[in-house]
Structure formats: structure tokens, C-alpha cells
Write a structure and sequence with these properties.
Elements (H helix, E strand, L loop, with lengths): L1 H16 L9 E5 L4 E5 L5 E5 L5 E5 L5 E8 L2 E8 L4 E8 L6 E7 L6 E7 L2
Antiparallel strand pairs: 1-2, 1-9, 2-3, 3-4, 5-6, 6-7, 7-8, 8-9
Keywords: Signal
Protein name: DUF5640 domain-containing protein
Organism: Treponema bryantii
């Protein structure tokens, strides 16, 4: 019985090694400026899709992101990472406000102008 329990614990811990820790942020948020949905899933992936068609644009996951960080402080929880494939850095922040909005900042490598917006939780 102890061996079975130890194997189960090891399996759960190993699963965590291969998924992004999204800091408790899960759900789908919409960026109405760009016809985009950002889905933060329980399996540690962030999937970007087109709102109008549901077409998958890109999946951010372990192996496609670099410098992945989760930061929690008195102002809220933030997730940040870089992606060589898209040539951008991303930051998503959930403040301590009662709403479910996320502040999103996308920093393209080829320009100093960032894209900043508030994305709304889809219901």
C-alpha cells in the first residue's frame, strides 16, 4: 500500500514538472481589439485562438516558452514569459480587484512599442 501511495505521489509531482504553473489563473479571456481568446488551462497550457472561428493560433506550453515566471505580491498575481517562436514577451496580471479582468502586456522583440490592454473573462 505504501509503495502504491508513493508511486501516485511521484506521478502527480512528475506531471507538474511538464506543465506551466499558471498561478491559479484558469479560464478564457477575450481581447476584443484583436479577435483573440486566451485560454489558461488546468493542464498548464495557454492557448491563443481566434474568437470568431475558434481556430487555434498558438499554444504556449513547456518547451515553447522561456523565462517563465509566476509572481505573487500585494498587488496580485502575474505570469510572464518569452516566446522565441512568436518573437514576443508576454505578461498577464490579475490584480486584487474583485473583477476577473487580466492586464495583458505584449512586448514584440522588433519594436519598443508594447501592446497593453485589459482582457475580459468570457462567461
Amino acid at each position: 500500500m505504501k509503495k502504491l501511495l508513493a508511486l501516485a505521489v511521484a506521478a502527480v509531482m512528475a506531471t507538474g514538472l511538464f506543465a506551466l504553473d499558471l498561478g491559479g489563473i484558469k479560464g478564457t479571456w477575450q481581447d476584443k481589439n484583436w479577435d483573440a481568446d486566451w485560454t489558461f488551462s488546468a493542464d498548464g497550457k495557454i492557448v491563443l485562438t481566434k474568437t470568431s472561428t475558434g481556430e487555434e493560433v498558438y499554444t504556449f506550453k513547456d518547451g515553447t516558452v522561456q523565462n517563465f515566471k509566476v509572481k505573487a505580491d500585494t498587488s496580485g498575481v502575474s505570469i510572464s514569459f518569452d516566446c522565441k517562436d512568436t518573437e514576443r514577451s508576454y505578461t498577464f496580471k490579475k490584480g486584487i480587484a474583485l473583477n476577473a479582468d487580466l492586464d495583458m502586456v505584449i512586448d514584440p522583440d522588433w519594436t519598443t512599442k508594447d501592446y497593453e490592454t485589459v482582457i475580459k473573462l468570457k462567461k
